[in-house]
Amino acid sequence: MRLILLGPPGAGKGTQAKLLKEKFKIPQISTGDILRNAVKNNTALGVQADSFMAAGQLVPDDVVIGLIKERIKRDDCDPGFILDGFPRTIVQADKLSETLEAMNLALDRVVDLEVDPEEVINRLTGRSTCSECGGMFHEESRKPKVAHVCDCCGGALAQRQDDNKATILKRLDVYQESTAPLKEFYKKQGNLGTVSAKGSVEEIFSRICELVT
Ligand code: AMP
Question: 77, 80, 126, 210: least surrounded by Cβ within 10 Å?
Answer without folding.
Answer: 210
